Amino acid sequence: MGAAATGNGSSAFEPQAADAAIPSKLPASDFTAPMSPHFDATHCRLCHRGPAAMATIHQHRGRGLKPSHMVLRGPLCRECGLVAWRRMTLETALLGWWGLPSVAVTPVALGLNSIVLVRLLRTPAAPAVAVFPVTWVQPVSDTV
Predict the structure, then answer these.
(1) What DSSP element (H or E) covers 54?
(2) Are 117 and 110 in contact (CB under 8 A)?
(3) Least confident of 1-10, 61-70, 81-90, 127-136
(4) How far apart are CA 92 and CA 114, in angstroms?
(5) Cα(86)–Cα(126) distance, rounded to whole angstroms?
(6) Which residues have a Cβ under 8 Å from the Cβ of 47 and sit 6 or more positions away?
(7) What is d(CA 36, CA 14) in angstroms, rounded to the nearest whole number?
(8) What is the helix (H) or strand (E) element at residue 93, kind and residue range?
(9) Sign of the alpha-carbon torsion through 101, 91, 18, 57
(10) In the chain, what are the domain boundaries?
């Protein structure tokens, strides 16, 4: 089906509005837009599992003279990073070429995403979450 929806109706793997642009007052190295109020570079910003790798994934859509460029920054675990990488790179590869400035920007975005893919593939997989069998569930009341 896809990613789980967040409270505002958008996918958790969609680039966030805070990721779209770095404020001009802050240097790029000091800017992070974590989804979690407790920022930790060793855990994924989407699912909060570790280990995670720092990644910057680009998505470019050419729209004639008004192209859009979105960026997802932060520590991502292998699973979340690969899902975001796959979606954003596919949209860039299919929709990034439509416009004169986009002919130059799209190959750069795809090249940068290829470097991120190598980093994500080198990240160890997050440990599985324990799931209890249904037989362990206790009845709600004693009358059942």
Answers:
(1) strand 53-61
(2) no
(3) 1-10
(4) 12
(5) 18
(6) 77, 79, 80, 126
(7) 15
(8) helix 78-95
(9) negative
(10) 20-124
Q: Could you give the CA distance from residue 129 to residue 97 in angstroms, rounded to a whole number?
A: 40
pLDDT in tens, 29-85: 434 444 445 556 788 888 888 888 999 999 998 887 888 889 998 898 899 899 999
Angle at which helices 102-122 and 78-95 pack, to 10 degrees?
A: 160
Q: What is the mean pLDDT of the chain?
A: 74
Residue 70: what residue type?
Answer: M
pTM for the whole thing?
Answer: 0.61
pLDDT tens-digit profile of 44-55?
888 888 888 999
What own/partner pairs with CB < 8 Å and gap ≥ 24 does 26-32 have? 32/73, 32/74
Q: Closest Cα to residue 85, out of 46, 50, 53, 120? A: 120
Round to whole Å and give the CA distance between 83 and 91: 12
- Residue 100, pLDDT > 50, answer yes
**Spatial separation of the C-alpha atoms in residues 24 and 12, rounded to whole Å:** 26
- Round to whole Å and give the CA distance between 79 and 48: 12
